[in-house]
């Protein structure tokens, strides 16, 4: 199969993720959309790795997964704390850090 | 011998330090310590004088460098002394008259609580004045110049509990400062032009500098001289300076300090010789001031202020003579010395009169005092005859020479200057006769003061009369002694140079004219004040009289032009500061503040809006990269 199709898929996934981040209010969903964008990037990396015939892309995909795992831990902890203190998981409610 | 020159300055300086730092321990003996150290300085002066007489004309000058003061690269300022005939003349005058006035002050200030401080200041003045005349460079001269200014300030304001004295002191200081700025700029100009400010090199190479530069330096020196010597236009302080104790008026504001300007011009002779335009300015200042001071002197009822006007006028003569160049330098200094005698004598006489009259200064409250104060009357009278130029007395010889020299200037200038000097001589005779008649002749006019204390005129104590007698001797004989064989001319010629000039009128004619105007002046005063009783309150008088009573409106002029002008200038500057400078600064601050307020709105706390800007930024970057690659 033509590897370019994978790139289309990656683009599509990234777009869905970005749209979700911008549109949805539930922190968990926003978070999942961020994960979706990360994985779309991973897919693109791996595809490019295949297309160019070297392993750099694959390695970066591993890095991304590790960083994403760490990010998930911190992110979920933040969401938990916000939910506990404000009884809501809406990102729009947590808009106090402004002038 | 050279080492003695330094001692000349150090002796009174030591006195000043002792008296000002010694504390109350010296209250009892302080005035004698001060007098003794002044006398010591005089003795040193006499020893140096005797030593100088032992040598020939050209070898008489002594020179010594004490230490290097400011050695910085090409800038070399030394503390060095130079004692030539010109300095010697001043040293003898300053220490001689200074010692006499110290002695006089012992009597005059007897009952003053702050007597010790007074003598400290007097000694400080002597030290500064001596430094001024024995300095071998302009920078050290400037130190002395400022020193005498300080001493003058302290002594004018000595009775600072009187607001008028405190104000007068400030006025003298500030007006002098204008002149001092001139001197300091002149010194800087000299340094850039000649690379040094030692008298020797500067005056020797003065001819090599361009006339423009010489004129600039000379005019600045003239400004300095105007400030210190109370010449038009910086004359306004001298009348008010009479607020100081009378010995101070005699020593500082008549005999010595105010003549420093004449010294400066004579000392800088070769600079002025190379700048005819500046010399014209000098003679103009001299001629204007000699008439100005004389006119003011005619209208004053305060005996000291009348004498102050006279001082201004007589120094005008000296400045006029000094401005004439080599024709006049010697006579300027000669008149300076004789004036030092008779004007100090007159002031001491005035002080003696005030001493016996409960410090009354209004001449309309005197009258008939010759019976009560015979010694004061005789000494004052001799001083009077000397100043009006009575034939045979000091003032006659010196003033006559100046008038001759003014005519010898030649051309229209010579006629104008000579005419002004002659007219000044007539007015001098008039106002001095007026002072004499109002004080010592006629009916007694004094009355009890507000508390009912009538003055009991009495002769002053011995410490006061002795100096007056000595100065009277000087007033009578000094001029004659100087003129025997042209002794003074020969004495000073090696330093100042001398040329005779071509007078369009013979010396005899000038002398005759001087005597005639003298008689006219005296007669006029006699008709006005001698024949009929002097009214106890001043009549309204003519417009000129009223103007002259107000010092010919000099203060009003200064007030309107300088004070008001200054106020308007500051006000407009403040306005510009508030509107323009503050406007720019505040405007910038306000616009920056407004802009940042608007930018802060972007930070609204919504995560999604930050995300949009991130995505937008990323998109812009990508588009830009693609475009760059396409290009």
TrEMBL record, chain A:
Record keywords: Cell membrane, Membrane, NAD, Quinone, Translocase, Transmembrane, Transmembrane helix, Transport
Family: Belongs to the complex I subunit 4L family.
Domain of life: Bacteria
Cellular localisation: Cell membrane; Membrane
GO biological process: ATP synthesis coupled electron transport
UniProt GO cellular component terms: NADH dehydrogenase complex; plasma membrane
Chief site of localization: membrane
Organism of this sequence: Streptomyces netropsis
Entry keyword Membrane: yes
Function: NDH-1 shuttles electrons from NADH, via FMN and iron-sulfur (Fe-S) centers, to quinones in the respiratory chain. The immediate electron acceptor for the enzyme in this species is believed to be a menaquinone. Couples the redox reaction to proton translocation (for every two electrons transferred, four hydrogen ions are translocated across the cytoplasmic membrane), and thus conserves the redox energy in a proton gradient.
Protein name, entry field: NADH-quinone oxidoreductase subunit K
Catalytic activity: a quinone + NADH + 5 H(+)(in) = a quinol + NAD(+) + 4 H(+)(out)
Chain ranges passing through the membrane: 6-23, 28-48, 60-83
EC number: 7.1.1.-
Keyword Transmembrane helix: yes
Membrane topology: Multi-pass membrane protein
Assembly and oligomerization: NDH-1 is composed of 14 different subunits. Subunits NuoA, H, J, K, L, M, N constitute the membrane sector of the complex.
Family annotation (Gene3D superfamilies): 1.10.287.3510
Any one GO molecular function term: NADH dehydrogenase (quinone) (non-electrogenic) activity
Gene from which this protein is expressed: nuoK
InterPro entries according to UniProt: NADH_UbQ_OxRdtase_chain4L/K (IPR001133), NUOK/Mnh_C1-like (IPR039428)
TrEMBL record, chain B:
NADH:quinone oxidoreductase/Mrp antiporter transmembrane domain span: 135-417
Residues in coiled coil: none
Membrane topology field: Multi-pass membrane protein
One BP annotation, GO: ATP synthesis coupled electron transport
Main location: membrane
TM segment ranges: 31-50, 87-106, 118-135, 141-160, 181-202, 246-266, 278-299, 372-394, 414-432, 466-485, 505-527, 610-628
Chain ranges of the NADH-Ubiquinone oxidoreductase (complex I) chain 5 N-terminal domain: 69-119
GO molecular function: NADH dehydrogenase (ubiquinone) activity; NADH dehydrogenase activity
Compartment annotation: Endomembrane system; Membrane
Annotated organism of origin: Streptomyces netropsis
The keyword Ribonucleoprotein appears for this protein: no
Protein name, per record: NADH-quinone oxidoreductase subunit L
Gene Ontology CC: endomembrane system; membrane
Classification via InterPro entries: NADHpl_OxRdtase_5_subgr (IPR018393), ND/Mrp_TM (IPR001750), NU5C-like (IPR003945), Proton_antipo_N (IPR001516)
Keywords carried by this UniProt record: Membrane, Transmembrane, Transmembrane helix
Listed Pfam families: Proton_antipo_M, Proton_antipo_N
